[in-house]
Structure formats: C-alpha cells, structure tokens
Amino acid sequence: MSERITKDMAKNIYFGGGIFATLIFVGLTFDSVNQIPELSNEVNMTESVVLGKKIWEDNNCVGCHTLLGEGAYYAPELGNVFQRAGSSNEEAFKGYMLGWMAAQPLDIPDRRKMPQFHLSPEQVNNLSDFLIWTSKVNTQEWPPNIQG
Amino acid sequence: MKYSSQMVAKPYFIFALILLAGEILFGLTMSIQYIYGDFLFPLIPFNVLRMVHINLLIVLLLFGFMGATYYLIPEEAERELWSPLLAKITFWVFLVAGVATILGYLLVPYAELAELTMNELWPTMGREFLEQPTITKIGIVFVVLSYILNVTMTVIKGRRTTISIILLTGLFGLAFFFLFAFYVPDNLIMDKFFWWFVVHLWVEATWELILGALLAFVLVKLTGVDREHIDKWLYLIIAMTFIAGLAGTGHHFFFMGAPGYWLWIGSIASAAEPIPFFLMILFAYNMVKNRRIQDDNKMALTWAKGTAVVGFLGAGVWGFMHTLAPINYYTHGTQLTAAHGHLSFFGAYVMIVFTMVSYAMPILRGRPHGNSPRAQKVELTSFWFMVIGMIGLTLALTVAGILQIEAQRIPDSANAMSFMNVQDMLTPVYFVRSFFGVMVFLGLLIYFYSFFVKEDKRVVA
To answer: Among A20, A74, A104, A123, which would you mutate to test the B interface (most chain B Cβ atoms within 10 Å of its Cβ)?
Structure first.
C-alpha cells in the first residue's frame, strides 16, 4: 500500500484530516460547554459546594480516591459515597462525614491509611456539600452499582 | 557529533535518567503501601508518593524531549543551536524548579504547600498530574517557551526538514494545551472537561508528534533510508494521530458529566487510536528492512523497534481493550486503567527517550560508532529486564483489574463486593506486580552500569 501513496498525498491527508478532526472537536466542545451546566445541575452549586471543591483540591484527595472514575485507584470512588455511606440522606451523610474525618487514620494494622487532615467541622460540611452535589451529576448511569 | 552545541543535550539526558530512577523507586514504594498500608505511613502518605511518582514521570519526559531536541535540531537545521547558553540556563532553571517542587511535596503537607505558594491567588493545585503549585506551573511555561524559542530560531535560520517542522508542531501543541492547566472553573465537571485538554491532548495527540519525529530522526540516521520515504510515513502516522486522537478525547467524557453523544463519538474515534501506533511498527520494521547502512550502534535500533512495539501494545492494545463505552462502563477507574497507563507511558514515551539516549549519548561521549559490543551486550540485558518487567507488571495489573471488575462492578448493588474488600483479595496479585517492578528497577541499574563498561580497543581498519 505504501508504494502507492506519495509524500504529498500523505501530507494532504495530514492537513485535511487534521483540520477536519479539529473542526469536529472544537464544535463538540462548544456544545458540551453549553450543556454541562444543566447536566451538572449548576443551579444547585452553592458557595459551600465551591468551597468544598477547594478543600478537595487543597488536600489532594484525588491522590488516593477516584471521583467519577478519575484519580488514583488506592481508595474508594467518592462520586457516589453520598448514596453508599449516607443512604442519600443529607443529614445522615453529613454526620457520617464528621465522624469519619475525625477518626482518621483508622487504627487497623496494615489497612490502607487515610491521613488526618485537621479540617474544621465547617470545612467537613463544605466537603460533604461538594460530594452531595457531585453525586447528582448526570453521569450516564455510571457507576454500575453502589460500590462505585 | 557534527555541531558542538549538540553537547547541551547531555545534562538533559543524564538528569532525565536520574529522575527515572526516582520515579521507579517511588513506584515501588507505592506498590508496597498497596499491600502494607502502614509502610512509611504517616511519614509519606500514598497521595504524596503518587504525586511524586507521576510528576517525576512528566518532568523526566520533558527533560528527555528537550535533550533529544537539542541533539536533533542542529543536525536537522545544519547549523549550531541558536543559543546554547539559553539551553543551559533553561536546564538549571528547570532542574531547580523541579527539585524544589518535589521537596515541597515531600516536606510539608499538601494543604500547607498550597498555602505557602499562595494557591488562593490563582488556584490550580490538587488535580491529577497538575498538582504543581501555580508558581511552578508558571515556571514550566517560561522554561517551555524559552525551549521553543531556541528551537524555532534554529529551524528558521537553518534548513527546514519535515522532521523538524513536525517536532516543532508537537512542541507548540504541548505549550498551547498546557495553558489549560491554568483554567480551573468552580464547576467540577467543566474543570474535568478541560483538564483532559492538557492530559489527553498531550499524551494522545501532541506528544505523539514528538514521538514520531524523534523516531523518524533515529531511523534516518541508523538506516540511511531516503528522507522522502521516511517523511511520507511520518505524515501518515501523525495524520492518523490527529484524526483519531482529537475526537478520541471523547473516550474520557463517557461518565463524568459530559453530554451522552460522547459515548458514540468517543468510542468510534478512539477505536482508531491504535492505528498510528500500528503504523509506527510497520514504519520501524520497514525502514530497518530497507536500510542502506549498517550502523554499529545496534542498541539504538533495538530501542527504536522496541518503542514502536511496546508503544503499540501499551497504547494500542491495552487502550483499545477498554475504550469502547459499553466496556468502559465497567472498567472506568479500575486497575485496568492503571495497567494501560503504565505500559503506554513506558512503551511510547520512556522508550523513545531511551532510544534517543542510546543513539546520541555514545556520540556525545566521543564514540561515533556506538558503545563497544560488550557495553551493548549489557545494555541489551537491561533492555529485556525493563521490557519484561513492565509487561509483567502490566499483566499483573490487568489480572487485578479483571478480578476487581468481576467482584465489584458486574454484580448488582446487593451482591457486589466493597472496594476495600476487593483490594484485600487482590494482595497476591499486587505481590506479583511488585516483583516485576523490582525487575524494572534492576534493569535500569544494569542500564546505568552499561555506561561504565570500558571501551574495547578498536581495531582501526
């Protein structure tokens, strides 16, 4: 096959194909940016949710956990931890989070350890709000089950 | 060596290799913490180990690409580098910034590092691969810009070849897409969407151009095949890279809050992503078959063929395994993802750096015909240790991933095993992974040793 293709033809495939692919990608990007606010329920993104995201980032939570499947694979998925640990009940989840964050690191020999991050109750509350908001994003029915 | 300014490549290569040793050591430490959670805890928690592991990888590859470019560009442009001094300054600036950042990760808790570096002024930290403090990110921009300036000026003032133009295109793309690292919207989903503009469009688009250009350069030098022929292959490879890779970004948009049409578009486009890697195998073997010269540096050719094959396995085969949305639904964010990540980064990018180092270092060290046969024999041993080690640990992670999916993802909510219980179950597999990790590290040590094998007395014909 390669004998029939000349360098100029290959070059044209590169430029033509490249431009075509770029146009499609840029077009879909614009459309996605328009749709994401609705898919993610941006109207419910309170100040507390935004603060919670900062706490998530400042403590590098993604260095151990996945969030909607992205991150590290050392610790459980947290995109649906609201359903798993809080049974989709906001009060129950927030109470659970306060207890959980305060109890770290768990004193179980050889269990993978979560560090103590010394967050204030307010900060834990922000983090909970962030995780609750995240759990309601339209993720095309992912994850397959409650275990994430 | 034809141009004295090519010499600036040497410290880049050496430092890249030192960083690689660090990267593997941190990887090994993580693999132990995977099994014994108390290992080095709380001294170095897992997230810190991982941050160092993946940041070292990126920085070592950037050092490797830079060294490779500084070696290649004068020969391609047929003139000295525009500013060897700037290249030397860039090296030290990058080294100091890199070391300081890694020390920052290790010495203070991450939240404190964010505070110390005034992250709140322009928050960009705490995202995978982009953990660097904002000030470091700005530093990276300056380093990359001075690097691109140097290369561009050299190319403009000298001969322009397809290889150098494509390399430059890759570098401009690398710089452009890194700018998305500075865009961190409050909406997590929007944040994730544009995060992939750095991560995916680096490793599955612009870096492939760099890879293709470096591979083509080494093949031109070692096989003596006509440039017309090599250029044609290069264009075909990067054409497929763009056609598949751009819309292929969609395979990351399946389940993170982006519109549903990405399930289709991402699946179809990324199903074609193995093609450029397959073409690279055909390219490498075809050029070797049609070679017009026999170069004494056999190891450089071995690495060149190796990077094509292992890159295809890691990026092509292991990528395709879980790129279709109905499969990815179950595999997304499991050990299978880790398996693919390890073999593709190693095959496509670490091995092309090895290829360039093995080709250029002997010349930079005054051995125009490559290292002695004895040194090359040692290097061949290291090649197989590293390649078999990496494939072994990838297979281990693949088994771990399949078991994880079977226990945790496929059953319904009532019957699925919890994440932590599954991880406990996987312990024996993680031992196998660590074993192969040690093998990779031994391979690297043997590689280092090959630098110190004494030259045989050459018979001058």
So the answer is: A74
